[in-house]
Amino acid sequence: MKRSRPGVTGTRRPRVVVVAPPFLSHAQPLSVLAGALARAGCEVHLATAPSFAPLAEAAGVRFVPLTVTRNANTGVARSTRQGAREAERLEEFLASTRSGAVAALLTQALHRGEDLLGDPSAVLSRLRELHARLSPDWYVVDQLSYPVTLALHCLGLPYATYCPGHPTYVPHAPEALFGVPHAWPRAVRPGEQDLAALRRAAEAAEEAFTARFGEVARAHAPAAPAPGRAFALASPHAVVFGYPPFPWLPERPRGTAEFFYGGHCSPPAEPSPGGAWEEVVRRLRTVRRRLVLVALGTFLSARDDVLAVVVGGIRSHVPDAAVVVAAGDRAGALSPLAGPDVHIADVVPQRWLLAQADAMVHHGGNNSFTECVVSGTPALVLPFSSDQFCIAHDAERAGLALCLDPSRLTPRAAGEALRELLAEAPPGLPVWTPEVRRRGPDWMARRLARTMASVGPVRV
C-alpha cells in the first residue's frame, strides 16, 4: 500500500536510521553525520554494534543494536575480540602489506567475500525486523555495508548511501573495478603484469559478489528490480562523500543519484583530552621546537617496522622535531624508542593533537586525510592498501601532502620528506582547508534532508 511520509508530508519529524558497520573508522563519522541529521530536524537512530553505543550518546541520537558483519574493529584491530577466521584474515592481510601495494590489494580481493558479504540473508531478516519496530522514513547506509544495501534494495526501502572512503568506492564507469585504484601516487606505480593480475582478481570478486546479490534478490524479492553490479549498487537518490570536491574526480553518471561532496565528516571541534595529554605536548615542546604526529590507523598501527623507520628518520634528519606515535597493540614493542623527544601510546586523541602538531604521517585513510586538511596540517602519506593509493594521489595532486611507498621506506627518505614539509607547508592547504571547512557534516545533513523531503511517497 501507499504510505505518506510522516514528517516529510505530515507533521512529525522524519525518522532516519543510520546503519554503521562495527569498525570505529566507519562508525565514528557516521555517528557524526547522525548527529548532524538530528540538528537538521530528523529523529535519528544509530544502528550499529553494541560496543559503539557511546557514539550515539555523544551524537545526541538514539541507539539501536544491529550486527551486520562478523568482522569488527573497536579502535585497534588486533585488540578487538572476534572470531578465529576473522583474526586469521587480519594477520594474512597485515603480512601481505609487507610485500607491497599489489600484494595487499590481491589479498583484500581474495578476502572480499568473507569480509564484506558474510550472511546477507540474516542481515535482511534483521533489517526487516528493525523496520517493523521503528518504521523509519529513510535509512543512511555505509557504502561498504553491502549486505545492508542489498537488504534495503530487496525490501524496497528508501536510503541514502554514505561513502566512507575515496569516491571511486562507488564504481563510476563500466570499466571501473572496485579494489583497483583508478590513480596512483608517483611513489607507487605497479608494473603492467601486476596490474593485470589485480584486475583479474577484482573481476573475479565482482563476478562472485554480483552472482550472490542476484541469488539473494531472487530468493527474497523476485519482483524487485535486479540489483545489477554488486559494487555499484547504491542509493538512487543520494550518495554522500565525506571528501573534498576535487575537480578531477569521476563525474556523476547522467540520470543517477545526486552526489554530495561534504569535504569531511568529523566533529566541529575536539575537546581537550585532559591534563595528561596536555602535559605530554608541553614536555615534547620543551625539548623540541616542532611536533610530528605519526598514526597509521586502527589496522596498520600493527606495522611497527614502518613506525620505527619514521621515528628513526625524524631523529636523524629532523633534529628539531619531537614525535607522538600511535602504536596500537605494538606500543610495548616500540617502547625502547620512547624518550624525551618521542612519546609512544596505544591510541591518541588524533583530532586534538592535529591542532598541536606541525605535521602528520598517516596511511592515507580518509579520516586522517580529511582531518589534516580541516586542521591545515601538512602530511606525509604512506599508503598500504584499499583506497589509500587514490587518496594519496589526490593529496599529492592537490598540493596537500607528500607521498612515499611504505614498502620501500628508509629513515633518510622519511626524514627528508618531513623536513621539506616543515620548511614550507604544501601550497594546496590555503586553497582547500577553507573549502573543506565550509562543508562538513551539517552541510551534508541539510542536503540529505532536502533530498528526503523531495522524494515522494514510497511503497513499503
From TrEMBL:
SUPFAM superfamilies reported for this sequence: UDP-Glycosyltransferase/glycogen phosphorylase (SSF53756)
Keywords: Transferase
Name of the protein in its database record: Glycosyltransferase
UniProt KW Transferase keyword: yes
InterPro entries in the record: EryCIII-like_C, Glycosyltransferase_28, UDP_glucos_trans
Domain Erythromycin biosynthesis protein CIII-like C-terminal: 320-424
Pfam families with a match to the protein in the record: EryCIII-like_C (PF06722)
CDD domains: GT1_Gtf-like
Keyword Transferase applies: yes
